[in-house]
Amino acid sequence: MGLKCLAQHYLKSTGPSFILTKKNKPLRRRTASLSKMEFVNPEGLRLDGRRPMEMRQLRAEIGVVSKADGSAVFEMGNTKVIAAVYGPREVQNRSQQSNDEALVRCEYSMANFSTGDRMRKPKGDRRSTEISMVIRQTMEACILTHLMPRSQIDIFVQVLQADGGTRSACINAATLALADAGIPMTDIVTSCSAGFLNGTPLLDLNYVEDSAGGPDVTVGILPKLDKVTLLQMDSKLQMETFETVMQLATEGCKAVASYIREVLLENTKQLESRRGV
Amino acid sequence: MVGLSLGEQTFIKGGIEQDLRTDGRKRLTYRPIFLETGIIPQASGSARVKLGATDVIASVKVELGKPNPSYPDKGKVSIYVDCSPTAEPSFQGRGGEELSTELSSALERCLLGGKSGAGTTYEHMTIRLRSLHIHLLQFLVSEFAPGAGIDLSSLCIVRGKKVCWDLYIDGLVVSSDGNMLDALGAAIKAALSNTVIPKVQVSANAPSDETPEVDVSDEEFLQFDTSGVPVIVTLTKVGGHYIVDATTEEESQMSSAVSVSINRLGRICGLTKRGGAGLHPTVVLDTISAAKHVSEQLMNKLDSEIAAAEACDEMES
């Protein structure tokens, strides 16, 4: 089955997401009849005007936090995430120091204003702890930790705006930040999510589609080595459908990877010109 | 932050003595301010302020709520600041809580005039003036306007009814290079001028004890009145002189710091003194007058930046 991924991330989506309008429309009105909602209308368009296999607009910027060793902002549609990397540096907690490899730590926190309803507790809740662990394991797989024994690499991810796919945006931002910090990696890690609603596989779910209760598959891959480092799924899917959806998410990851490579190349060219090379 | 060597410390202090700081500024000059408004679409108002390498985001959310029974004709404002670990690795987990609480309460004091919101600040003057200076204190107190800073009565919807606006102001420190309080104050001021409060219609025939029905309009909005909102100016004492807008390096050499919040009318809305060293009362009065002088320039700069940002915002939307 040839999956033509219209991952034209240069195409502007036809407008902001339904929920996140300037006038702060309440979320409550929507959740009443989500199961009966049409996520893909008869013309084949989703709620925000995208096609089922179309990703949201991607935007990335490197070097936003000048104090950090490496930092990046990554936007996937309305989801906006900042990642900052501090390291390699001396281990703060001697008992955790490893003589063979670097210690990788990660913290995921959401800003109070990132979701539609104001969050009470930005960090420390179960979801944040779980996502921190997931990001840490994913990044640890690609960092060449044996090159930096007895040191520590801190990855901090801060969500500024959450509109679905925060996990993926965080991993993509962390990859860029690690590259900006010059930390050696085997390959970049990119991530994307996909779901299945109204009988159609959908790429890159936003918040409304995510909270519909349908399946949500998040995939993280090492594009050059073609290996999967992260695979998570909510809800349930038929086996064949799962393969289709996962394949779609992987295509999305590859599209993100080509965008990230472009951004990194652009950044290197700028650094070169600044150094007068 | 890596510690500073003795040579670096002397360099910083010496520079300040000679009115030439490490980055070339004069003692009372601010770093270039970069301001953006309306960056958080789901908030009622938001702004991002970059003061050199210090980067903060403020967002304002407006919700309906019940007023405090002791102040039935005033709304409520709550300020919460979060220090993101992206700014400083030591803010990870609960490490940034202390600084967050300190900034939140300092902002509450400066912008609301303390918990009561009434604005009288006898209790907030943490220095004791000797009897010789009592007449000066009295002169100053008359400058402390009641209900200084954010005017809570403007948040009241209908007097006597149990509905008012609750303002939730959230600050996030993304990157820190000193002087976070001033940056947060500026961001909150910009976010408030970006805030729109929906018009409400309260049903008049509900009995006065129950919560009346409120119809929140989706179409009509009121701009929040920010003419009285103050700016915060922090003066840091390094060696024998005061500097404005200290970087982290300069702050590490400070002996004490005084933060004054002054509004457009020149009225002092709040005062905080940090740091261990004691100050002579005349020195404090000196700082306040220096802060007043600096605040005029800062206020004008901020107002022009906010107007430019809003114009940019309108052009885009």
From TrEMBL, chain A:
UniProt cross-references to InterPro entries, sorted A to Z: ExoRNase_PH_dom1, ExoRNase_PH_dom2, ExoRNase_PH_dom2_sf, PNPase/RNase_PH_dom_sf, Ribosomal_Su5_D2-typ_SF, RNase_PH
Record domain Exoribonuclease phosphorolytic: where: 54-184, 187-252
Major place of residence: cytoplasm
One GO MF term: RNA binding
Statement: the UniProt record of this protein carries the keyword Nucleotide-binding: no
GO biological process: nuclear mRNA surveillance; poly(A)-dependent snoRNA 3'-end processing; rRNA catabolic process; U4 snRNA 3'-end processing
One Pfam family this sequence matches: RNase_PH
Assigned keywords, A-Z: Cytoplasm, Exosome
One Gene Ontology cellular component annotation held by this UniProt entry: nuclear exosome (RNase complex)
Location(s), subcellular: Cytoplasm; Nucleus, Nucleolus
Family indicated by similarity: Belongs to the RNase PH family.
Protein name according to UniProt: Exosome complex component RRP41
Native source organism of the sequence: Salvia splendens
Lineage: Eukaryota, Viridiplantae, Streptophyta, Embryophyta, Tracheophyta
